[in-house]
Amino acid sequence: MSAPLTVIIPTIDAADRLSPTLAALTEGVVDGLVRELVIADGGSTDGIEALAEGVGARLVRAPRGRGTQLHAAARSTETPWLLFLHADTVPAPGWSAAVAAHMALEPDKAGWFRLAFDSSATMARVTAGWANLRSRVFGLPYGDQGLLIPRALYDETGGYRSIPLMEDVALARAIGRRRMAAIEAVATTSAGRFVAEGWFRRGWRNLTTLALYFAGVSPERLARRYERR
């Protein structure tokens, strides 16, 4: 049986941040889980072509925008499962066994990793705890938690939308809480933006953006509001 999984990573000038993620994915290749790595690039000028060639990844070019990039890459693949990861999200050792278990036990459901940050700050643990609670209770994992999804379910929901913000929440809502389950593994993501802006300020910004989206404010308007800060 051929490997069932394609891993898709969106990039915009992220070549210098990809090494830890790529190193972690080696486990899935060795275990016979990952068939292909696709880098979905939105117009980088940082030599991403050479990096992709060097690690044996396929590069897919698309107009800038995470949802647009991810959807273009997903449409170019044929495997029965897709795993979407941010460039600075690193699955912990043992992730491939956890993903394989999810595929066997929850073949019709999407999955997400438990979130951790690369910071020892108390607020890092608090913020990650809230993210994991939100995912379990409301079925709303964000992109930095990764998204594992059967291709059939991806196609049924229409996949990622070409919107400038909230593409991960839009897809999670289309999937629905009952068709999601936690993957029993951790993914660590960068705390850089929280550290730069402040944990409370960044967390409040994310929470209010989510609330406004649920209230019906368009992703385009939310993106303009986001960029002004």
TrEMBL record:
Pfam family, one: Glycos_transf_2
Domain Glycosyltransferase 2-like: residue ranges: 6-127
Predominant place of localization: membrane
Keyword presence, Transferase: yes
Domain of life: Bacteria
Keyword Membrane in annotation: yes
InterPro entries xref list: Glyco_trans_2-like, Nucleotide-diphossugar_trans, Trfase_2_rSAM/seldom_assoc
Keywords (A to Z) from UniProt: Cell membrane, Glycosyltransferase, Membrane, Transferase
Compartment(s) of residence: Cell membrane
Positions in coiled-coil regions: none
NCBIfam families on file: glyco_like_mftF
PANTHER family in UniProt: GLYCOSYLTRANSFERASE (PTHR43646), GLYCOSYLTRANSFERASE 2-LIKE DOMAIN-CONTAINING PROTEIN (PTHR43646:SF2)
Protein name: TIGR04283 family arsenosugar biosynthesis glycosyltransferase
